[in-house]
């Protein structure tokens, strides 16, 4: 394929997949997509896997299968460790690879801020293994609670806490609360589930800070109705594996503390240090080119593009990554044809979050709504966004089963989770 332009894409997330799909249909390009996993993860529904609403294979899809029939496409399962821009090469755990254009689409990881050194004590939710670990840990603790009734740590064992009241924290809190009300009393009749507390701590004065006031208020109301203890203006200042301390001095017990309070970009060695800015994101121009790297681009969560409308960069959400990927494909094709690249313009599709059964909040540009209709919209959008027909069908079946029976395929501890 020596006559073709070789594009290496690192990361098969929303951005990498969108770019590779468009580019690999063009005969002038040889596309190599690299990911450390052999599947694409639909991260918005990770919390459903963590709480037993969906099985992991409903939200993950094999990368090779997405690209069946794409002639100019290759997949390599590898972890990229370094870029050598002067040689147009990357280093991976399976060897070196060269490129004409390199696109970094490695997404982000949890940002533990001051808690980085003790991050192992928290549960994260960025990958399928994270979600399965969380599910196992919750079930292990509930099993433990049945034999440790009266133990002085009992409360810490059964309580669950979430740090961060963004969409992930809110959706997770709602899902855990439903599990507490509808599933656990049937599966653990010997447990007094009324003693199980679900805490949600948010440092800002409102939940869903990136959404409208109406959505914040509605989500708070829904969570309170579900019995979640929501604390606003509540900055977590300490955690010892059992006790959470807030900046105000208040203390809470919980062995299960789920961290959803922020993300930082996954950057790799070799990129101009000046380009790596706030939140570990790589500064790109309006064509997704990384500062001082002519043929290296960044898209999605890891890219930081300043525009007048978005002076802090675009939101780190799936539509940004998809739009970056699709736009860059167009630009690389234009570049190959000797045409000027076009500036990227973000199209805001709005945002939404669900807060348990029949309740959701939706902010569309110029139109906001909450409640049951919002929940149906949320269901439809997420179902249609899942990759692969099989995944859509299975998720639809699991959600319908859950809707009619109030039950979930929850509870297998196949691979027990042990804290490091
Ligand atoms: C729990 C959760 C809920 C979310 N909910 C929503 C939502 O409701 N709506 C929404 O729009 N967005 C949501 N998001 C955000 C959205 O998922 C991200 O913005 C989006 O996934 C970013 O896409 P990306 O292509 O930049 O990276 P990702 O989708 O994160 O993909 C990055 C890929 O790079 C791979 N990778 C990373 N480092 C390397 C390496 N060194 N070598 C090889 N491969 C590597 C990873 O394995 C991964 O497959 C949520 C995120 C999370 C975690």
In short:
The chain has 420 residues and is an alpha/beta fold. It has helices at residues 14-23, 46-50, 56-59, 63-66, 128-147, 154-158, 167-187, 213-225, 318-336, 372-385, 389-405, and strands at 5-10, 29-35, 39-41, 60-62, 73-77, 80-84, 89-92, 95-98, 101-104, 108-110, 160-163, 198-201, 229-231, 236-239, 243-246, 251-253, 256-259, 263-265, 276-277, 281-284, 296-298, 303-305, 351-354, 360-364, 367-371. Among the domains are: 5-36 and 78-110 and 263-336, FAD/NAD(P)-binding domain (3-Layer(bba) Sandwich); 113-261, FAD/NAD(P)-binding domain (3-Layer(bba) Sandwich).
Percentage beta strand: 15-25%
CATH topology annotation of the domain at 113-261: FAD/NAD(P)-binding domain
Beta-strand segment tally: 25
Structural class: alpha/beta
Provide the residue-averaged pLDDT: 95
Task: Note poorly predicted spans.
Answer: none
Q: Biggest sheet, in brief?
A: 5 strands, parallel
Distance between the termini: 46 Å
Percent helix, as a range, is 25-40%
The CATH architecture of the domain at 113-261 can be named as 3-Layer(bba) Sandwich
| Anisotropy-based shape | globular
CATH class of the domain at 113-261: Alpha Beta
How many DSSP H or I helices? Answer: 11
Bound molecules: flavin-adenine dinucleotide
Report the C-alpha radius of gyration, rounded. Answer: 22 Å
Strands side by side in the biggest sheet: 5-2-1-9-21
What does this entry look like structurally?
- The protein has 420 residues and is an alpha/beta fold.
- Among the domains are: 139 residues, FAD/NAD(P)-binding domain, CATH 3.50.50.60; 149 residues, FAD/NAD(P)-binding domain.
- The protein contains eleven helices and 25 strands.
- The strands form eight sheets. Strands 5-2-1-9-21 form a five-stranded parallel sheet, with helices on one face. A four-stranded parallel sheet has the order 13-12-11-17. A three-stranded antiparallel sheet has the order 6-7-8, with no helix packed on it.
- Strand 24 and strand 25 form a beta hairpin.
- Helix 1 packs parallel to helix 9.
- The longest helix has 21 residues.
- It is globular.
- 44% of the residues are buried.
């Amino acid at each position: 394929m020596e006559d073709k332009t070789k594009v290496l894409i690192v990361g098969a997330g929303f951005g990498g997949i969108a770019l590779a799909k468009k580019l690999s249909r063009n005969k002038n390009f040889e596309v190599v997509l690299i990911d450390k996993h052999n599947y694409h993860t639909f991260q918005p529904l990770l919390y459903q896997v963590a709480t037993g609403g969906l099985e992991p294979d409903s939200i993950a899809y094999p990368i090779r299968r997405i690209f069946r029939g794409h002639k100019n496409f290759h997949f390599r399962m590898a972890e990229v460790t370094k870029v050598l821009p002067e040689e147009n090469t990357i280093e991976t755990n399976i060897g070196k690879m060269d490129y004409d254009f390199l696109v970094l689409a490695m997404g982000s990881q949890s940002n533990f801020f001051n808690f980085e050194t003790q991050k192992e004590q928290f549960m994260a939710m960025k990958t399928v293994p994270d979600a399965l670990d969380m599910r196992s840990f919750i079930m292990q603790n509930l099993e433990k609670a049945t034999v440790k009734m009266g133990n002085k740590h009992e409360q810490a064992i059964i309580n669950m806490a979430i740090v961060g009241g963004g969409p992930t924290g809110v959706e997770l809190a709602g899902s855990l609360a439903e599990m507490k009300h509808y599933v656990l009393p049937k599966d653990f009749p010997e447990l007094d589930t009324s003693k199980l507390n679900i805490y949600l701590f948010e440092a800002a004065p409102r939940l869903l800070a990136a959404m409208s006031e109406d959505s914040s208020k509605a989500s708070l109301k829904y969570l309170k109705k579900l019995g979640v203890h929501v604390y606003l203006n509540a900055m977590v200042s300490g955690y010892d594996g059992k006790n959470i301390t807030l900046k105000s001095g208040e203390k809470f017990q919980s062995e299960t503390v789920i961290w959803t309070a922020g993300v930082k970009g996954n950057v790799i060695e070799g990129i101009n240090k000046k380009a790596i800015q706030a939140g570990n994101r790589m500064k790109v121009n309006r064509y997704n080119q990384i500062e001082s790297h002519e043929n290296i681009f960044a898209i999605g969560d890891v890219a930081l593009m300043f525009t007048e409308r978005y002076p802090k960069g675009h939101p780190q959400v799936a539509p940004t990554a998809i739009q970056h990927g699709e736009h860059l494909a167009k630009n690389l094709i234009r570049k190959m044809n000797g045409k000027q690249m076009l500036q990227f313009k973000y199209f805001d599709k709005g945002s939404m979050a669900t807060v348990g059964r029949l309740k959701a909040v939706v902010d569309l540009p110029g139109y906001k709504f909450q409640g049951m209709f919002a929940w149906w919209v949320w269901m439809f959008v997420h179902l249609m966004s899942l990759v692969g027909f099989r995944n859509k069908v299975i998720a639809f079946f699991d959600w319908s089963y859950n809707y009619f029976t109030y039950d979930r395929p929850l509870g297998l501890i196949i691979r027990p989770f042990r804290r490091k």
